[in-house]
Write a structure and sequence with these properties.
Shape: globular
Number of domains: 1
Strand order of the largest sheet: 3-4-2-1-14-13
Strand content: 25-35%
Distance between the termini: 7 Å
Organism: Caulobacter ginsengisoli
CATH superfamily: Endonuclease/exonuclease/phosphatase
Cofactor: Mg(2+)
GO molecular function: double-stranded DNA 3'-5' DNA exonuclease activity
Order of helices and strands: EHEHEEEEEHEHEHEHEEEE
Low-confidence stretches: none
Protein name: Exodeoxyribonuclease-3
Keywords: Hydrolase, Magnesium, Metal-binding
DNA sequence: ATGCCTAATCGCATTAGA
């Protein structure tokens, strides 16, 4: 079973790229972030024609998350983090697919830091931490996939010293990610590629992709019961080189049945 | 210290991304 995460940076502007990639790789489950489309403007029919059923949580202009399942429709289990706190940003959606809980998240960017956006990022991270702990307590097989907007370690940044004060790399944020993983989650990509420089994002600026000036910020975390099933974890980095590409590349894992 | 590039919304320049 192949599960992918892809920050599309505009699901309508990116539709040809998304469909081309779906056709090429045929993942079983796909988590999308940054739809940048209101609920009624999600391209459900075009994606259905490609063979995928979808649930999504849209928002005008910004954010937005979706889960696609090949040959079916994901059974939605949550929309927004389940702590009852008011949050007008569409950043979390969750479904049951093939006996797994799939959480699709778009963690806030948080720049500029310090400031209210950075505070919101840390608060959102704390809410995710609390809910992730609940998932582990329930003992369900779960994948938390998405754009975490965190480079976990220096190995995940092309030039760490340049990013020390950035909201994606500040110590508080790296600590929050480490604390989340320490609950018992497995960082799939790092698990299978220890010590390797792997990026999932390349800025549009300064010819970053050609220079391989990238960041690893899209992650797939596995609950303990799923960790032994991890067979592969890769980045479809060639997709970043396509015409009209997103600044993120699709990232995926393969789990044994 | 700032803009670079790109999308969305707008209807031309601004906001946000990371």
């Amino acid at each position: 079973m192949r599960i992918a995460t892809f920050n599309v940076n505009g699901v309508n502007g990116r539709l040809p790229v998304l469909l081309r990639w779906l056709e090429e790789t045929r993942p079983d489950v796909v988590c999308l972030q940054e739809l940048k489309a209101p609920q009624e403007k999600f391209p459900e029919d075009a994606i259905a024609k490609a063979g995928y059923g979808t649930i999504w949580h849209g928002q005008k202009s910004w954010n937005g998350v979706a889960i696609l399942a090949r040959g079916g429709k994901p059974l939605e289990t949550r929309r927004g983090l389940p702590d009852g706190l008011a949050d007008d940003q569409s950043r979390y959606i969750e479904a049951a697919v093939n006996g797994l809980v799939i959480g699709c998240l778009y963690l806030p960017n948080g720049n500029p830091a310090p400031g209210p956006k950075f505070d919101y990022k840390l608060a959102w991270f704390a809410r995710l931490h609390a809910y992730a702990a609940q998932l582990l307590e329930m003992g369900v097989p779960a994948v938390l996939a998405g754009d975490y907007n965190v480079m976990p370690t220096e190995l995940d940044v092309y030039k760490p010293e340049r990013w020390l004060t950035d909201a994606l790399f500040r110590p508080e944020v790296r600590d929050a990610y480490a604390a989340l993983v320490a609950q018992g989650w497995t960082d799939s990509l790092r698990q299978l590629h220890p010590g390797e420089r792997l990026y999932t994002f390349w800025d549009y600026f300064r010819n970053a992709y050609a220079r391989d000036a990238g960041l690893r910020i899209d992650h797939l975390l596995l609950s303990p019961s799923l960790a032994p099933a991890l067979k592969a974890a890769e980045v479809d980095r060639h997709v970043r080189g396509w015409e009209k590409a997103s600044d993120h590349a699709p990232t995926w894992i393969e789990l044994a049945d």
